[in-house]
Amino acid sequence: MTTTPDPRGRPAEIPGLTACSLCAGETLGGLDPLPGGQLARLERLQAHGSARLTLSECLDECNRGDVVIARPSSTGRANGARPVWFERLAGEQATDALARWLQDGGPGLAALPDELTSHVIRRAPSVEPAGPNGVEESHPNPLVECARP
C-alpha cells in the first residue's frame, strides 16, 4: 500500500476514520480498563498508520453510542466504495477487527469482517445532487459497497 500524499498532504491510500469525540467510550463507560478508553484505541489506529483519524464533536447519531465512520482510501473511492457507519464500536475485540479491516484496505478493497457486521448502521441510500446531465445519482447501502470482487 502506497503512502503518496493527497493534495492536502495526507497519505492517500490510508482509509479515513471519523469518530465523535464526545461519544467515544460511551458504550463501555467507566468499565473500560484502558486509560483514555475508546478514544485512545482510535488514536492508536492512527499512530500505527491504520487510518487517518478525524474527530467531530457530533455526528448526529447520539442515540447509537460510539459511532465511527470508516472512509475509503482514494483507491477504495475509485472502486465505488462509500463510507461505512458503525455503532457501539468499542472495546479491544471490535477495535482490533476494525484495525485489521482497515489495514487490509477497508471500504472498497477488503471484505467486511463478520465480527463488524452487527455494528453496521444500515443507512438509507443517499442521493447526490443532479450532475451536469440533470440526473441525480443514488448510492446503495454502504454495507453492500464495502468490497468489490
Give me the secondary-structure topology.
Elements: E1 16-20, H1 37-47, E2 52-56, E3 68-71, H2 74-78, E4 84-86, H3 92-103, H4 114-117, E5 126-128, E6 137-139
Parallel strand pairs: 1-2
Antiparallel strand pairs: 1-3, 3-4, 5-6
Concise summary:
With 149 residues, the chain is an alpha+beta fold. It is 21% helix and 15% strand.
Report on this structure:
The protein is of the alpha+beta class and 149 residues long. It has helices at 37-47, 74-78, 92-103, 114-117; strands spanning 16-20, 52-56, 68-71, 84-86, 126-128, 137-139. It is globular and about 40 Å long.
DSSP E strands, number: 6
Helical stretch tally: 4
Distance from first to last alpha carbon: 18 Å
Average of per-residue pLDDT values:
80
Q: Which structural category do the helix and sheet elements fall into? A: alpha+beta
Strand content: 15-25%
> Quick one: overall form?
globular
Name the helicity range.
Answer: 10-25%
Pick out the low-confidence regions.
1-7, 133-149
Task: Write out the strand line-up for the largest beta sheet, numbering strands in chain order.
Answer: 2-1-3-4
Q: Sheet with the most strands?
A: 4 strands, mixed
Oligomer kind: single chain
List SSEs in N-to-C order: EHEEHEHHEE
Please state the CA-atom Rg, rounded to the nearest Å: 15 Å
